[in-house]
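Bench log, entry 3. Co-assembly request; chain sequences pasted below exactly as received.
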Amino acid sequence: MSALMDKRLIVVTGKGGVGKTTVAAALGLLAARSGRRTVVAEVSEQERLSGLFGRRALGHSEGRLAENLHGVSIDPSRAKEEWLRYQLRSSALAGLLGGSRLFQYLTAAAPGVDELVTIGKVWDLAQLERRVGGTRPYDLAIVDAPSTGHGVALLRAPRTYAEIARVGPIARQAAQIDRFLSDGRYTGVVAVALPEEMPVNETIDLDGALRDELAMDIDAIVMNALLPDRFEERDAEVLARLDGQGPVAAALSEHHRARAQRAELERLRAALDAPLTTLPFLFEAELGREQVEFLSRRLEESL
Amino acid sequence: MIEDWLERKEVCVCAGAGGVGKTTASAAIALGMAARGRKVAVLTIDPARRLANALGLEELGNEEHRVDADVSGELWAMMLDPKRTFDEMVDLYAPDDATREAVLSNRIYQQLSSAVAGSQEYMAMEKLYELHQDGRYDLLVLDTPPTRNALDFIDAPERLAAFIDSRALSVFLGPTRLGLRVFGRGAGLAFSVMQRATGVDLLRDLSEFFRSFGGMTAGFRERAESVNALLRDHRSAFVLVTSPRRAAIDEARWFHRRLVEADIPFAGVVANRVHTAAADPNAVAALEPELGADLAAKVAAAAADEAALTERDRRNLDELRRRLGRRPLIEVPLLDDDVHDLDGLRRMDEYLFGEARPAR
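Structure output for the full assembly:
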């Protein structure tokens, strides 16, 4: 665990709907408890993190979620402005360019620009010397990355642009970000999965894509939402002999799913070397601070 | 129910967050419509392997395969290969071999067409349009890729057109006064500032890229506009797929709002994997003599969990229904097995096509 927490950046990714935001929040809380000044960054249009902590939406400004824990929801157009200001060393020039239709037009049209400035902002959050003036550095940045395919594209954007640009300021900066991301001393990857066929397949594919395209490894796998495994096989046989109505049907259905989950869990364990930890299924209707706290304790014990 | 939504429709787009069962729902809708006599093709991006096998999709490929599904209509399926679709499109629009080669071998093209997020969305729309133009099918069902921003794929054709638009091109072909004037006063200054920010070389490489695309832009733009028109008119229906979990419901509400704002023909919501166990403490108590205290207690705990999830799903879906107003919502219960074959799809269809309702 401490090896993961001692990195400067943790990338949390996985298939859509597996609970990336919740796991990122739990990791953030865990790091914050250990005394690290931590920031969790979201990159999707819908902000969820602040809601988990019962706070108002943060938007693109870094704000406090809990003791030692901060959050931010990265807006690519704001990140683009910040980059321009830094790049041109002049707010006036940045304003001129950012406001020009030519620039808006080209950067909106060229695919990959949003990804590049977004990952650039994530990188900046993880630096000891921040580009954005007047901000205190963080000990650890955690990014709640997009789902697998887009997550890899996000991580790959600097390398793509470094290769396209070859020389010049963009090539230099993109290569710098790329080196940071693919250096296991600085950047760690946590893959979140569900014990179901597709999320397990995607996690295996993610492992291959990270290694082949970016020379990165998965540092830890979090298998989320594991149902309780209550029944012995002979219990299930007894239940199956009864008329399958009401509570017995519900129990058998849960048992059936729990067993299918165990098979998928073992399949993933066998396929990948990265250490795997599990989190229980939460039956609460809504997740909040209390549940995130509970999950962070579980991660602390098992990671 | 779905049959009413898709009456006289030629395109059905299944949209929604990742992990809610879009691919399965798309396949089930396609199978159900084929069983009702229509000639249907389902375009999927990344099906689970077992489902892909069930549909006869052994590998990526831009060819449709007829699925042996024992239906009165026809069911065809295709697994989309975005990179190949992009190449095929270049093939189609390049005015001559030299242009085609210049584009396909261009470094920026090679990077952008496969590595950059968004190309999948462009290409899904492109393939959809191509098949629609062919006119071989009564109905096309599109399983949309999991987008970062859920509506990316709708904007995709427009953005692709903008990307290779001739106005951008005119700037890169040499920042002439005429080219820059399109962007208004100050564009010349902006261009030189941009050179300072990005480096001269990147701009030069980009201009090479745009130049190689030169002869093709008109075709692309026309195409993008046609795709857009098709998706927004009465021939299309968007089906929003969701799960009853909190995060998915929040996303569905947001997605629904965006569809309505964008004036997209929205048909209704499919809520997938809904829990349907009712709490019944008396029934649990009655089991104790038969099962013994230990096992009965475990059954009671499992039943209570399932009942809690049922209650959670009901509340979440009721809230979504209130937001939807008159728009319909179909519930498909959580089935004991993952849906991975034609029988599983048929079981889903019992709910999608209104022959069964989740028991409560």
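Strands of chain A lie at 9-13, 38-42, 63-66, 69-73, 140-144, 187-193, 220-226, 276-280. Chain A touches chain B through 76 residues (CB under 8 Å).
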